[in-house]
Design a protein that fits this description.
The structure is a single chain. It is built from 5 helices and 21 strands. The protein is an alpha+beta fold. The protein folds into 3 domains: 83 residues, no CATH class; 68 residues; 125 residues, Galactose-binding lectin (Jelly Rolls), CATH 2.60.120.430. The strands form 4 sheets. A 10-stranded antiparallel β-sheet has the order 4-3-7-6-5-10-1-2-8-9, with no helix packed on it. Strands 11, 13, 14, 19 and 21 form a 5-stranded antiparallel β-sheet that branches. Strands 12-20-17-18 form a 4-stranded antiparallel β-sheet, with no helix packed on it. α2 packs across α3 and α3 packs parallel to α5. The longest helix is centred in the N-terminal third of the chain and has 32 residues. The chain is flat and about 70 Å long.
């Protein structure tokens, strides 16, 4: 039988054991909390990336320049550009235009017309003035000859076909002035810049030109005048006062982009993407300037986008080292661009640029400070 003291001692021991068990349980719980894994991560979607060697390169990425879409056009909407520089836009009063041709009359629906340009025979007073100017080139009056020459030159390249009509008729003065005018026009043609649209004007011809969605017609527009209903009301316009009539039928709009191509964009290393995806048949115009230091040939040796013969060949007898080049898509043919180029896309893909370099100078750690400033214009087919 337990004594009172022994009973008290037993009670104390049991209490201490309980405390130890509680403490041990708390320790275990703390350890379990510290060692417990974090919440399971969200399962990742299985990647479809190709192996590194098969991944698409930068130049194959999706284009960043959206291709403009054609806007719907009212079937009788037209813009008339007049000789005084004004433009009248509105609904034409007729649904079709009668055109007389050498092969018979054609009635062309307005909704099928993209543009029409009245020829010189539709502007009799103006044509008579041009004839007088060419006659004055052979005048005995010096001032009349000089005045006629200056006015003819002021017309620009548009009058080239009329020049061909006034050949050598035995008049020495007229022949001399015609030769001088032709020389000036040759210089104008050299300055022609298709990128900025300078001098982009249709040559003057005698007949009227009608461009439809399907074909082009040369003939005579039978109507002497047009009535156009604009937001200011109906307006009557004489054909002889019209320089150009056009309709935005199927116009997709051009795409433009400016970018820089520097010494890290050697053809053997990395092409620079333009961010424009072109389609086969698109017309591409490129202009470039700037300089690149050709360090293997000396720290003061510079190249322009045209490259130079002293930098060797990138493509034998075709592309100099240092020249700006381009290609469409990763497997496209390399094209020589230089400082000025216009070409038609032979395939679809992202347009990209690089600098041509002799192979032995492309992977030897040379630096090529500088850059070419490139402007791109793409006109959808």
């Amino acid at each position: 039988m337990f004594t009172k003291n022994r009973w008290s001692l037993l009670t104390l021991c049991l209490a201490m054991l309980t405390v130890q068990q509680n403490f041990a349980q708390q320790v275990v719980e703390v350890i379990q909390e510290e060692e417990a894994p974090a919440a399971a991560p969200v399962p990742t979607v299985p990647t479809t990336d190709k192996p590194a060697e098969e991944k698409k390169t930068d130049e194959e990425e999706v284009a960043t320049v959206p291709r403009p879409k054609a806007a719907p056009v009212d079937p009788r909407f037209i813009r008339l550009h007049l000789a005084d520089g004004s433009v009248i836009a509105g609904e034409l009063s007729v649904e079709s235009i009668l055109v007389e041709t050498d092969f018979g009359d054609l009635r062309v629906p307005v909704e099928k017309i993209k543009s029409f340009t009245p020829g010189l025979e539709s502007k009799p007073a103006f044509l008579a003035n041009i004839e007088k100017l060419f006659n004055d080139l052979g005048s005995n009056d010096y001032q009349a000859r000089e005045s006629a020459r200056k006015e003819i030159v002021s017309f620009g390249l548009k009058i080239e076909q009329e020049l061909a009509r006034h050949g050598d008729d035995g008049n020495a003065e007229r022949k001399r002035h015609l030769e001088a005018i032709n020389k000036e026009f040759e210089e104008l043609a050299d300055e022609y810049d298709e990128f900025d649209g300078e001098n982009v004007e249709q040559l003057w011809i005698r007949g009227d030109t009608i461009v439809t969605t399907d074909f082009t017609i040369i003939g005579r527009i039978a109507q002497d005048s047009f009535t156009v209903t604009s937001k200011y009301g109906p307006l009557s316009v004489q054909l002889s006062d019209v320089e150009l009539g056009d309709r935005p039928v199927g116009e997709k709009g051009e795409m433009r982009k400016a970018l820089s191509v520097d010494g890290t964009n050697l053809a053997q290393l990395s092409y620079k993407t333009s961010g424009i995806r072109v389609e086969k048949g698109d017309k591409i115009t490129v202009r470039a300037d700037g300089q690149l230091t050709m360090s293997p040939w000396g720290s003061n040796t510079m190249s322009t986008p045209d490259g130079g013969s002293n930098y060797g060949w990138f493509v034998q007898n075709e592309i100099y080292g240092g020249a700006l080049i381009a290609k469409i898509g990763s497997n496209g043919k390399v094209l020589k661009v230089g400082s000025k180029s216009t070409f038609t896309a032979k395939q679809s893909g992202v347009l990209q640029f690089a600098i041509a370099m002799q192979h032995q100078y492309a992977n030897q750690g040379y630096n090529y400070p500088g850059q070419y400033n490139v402007r791109v214009k793409v006109q959808p087919r």
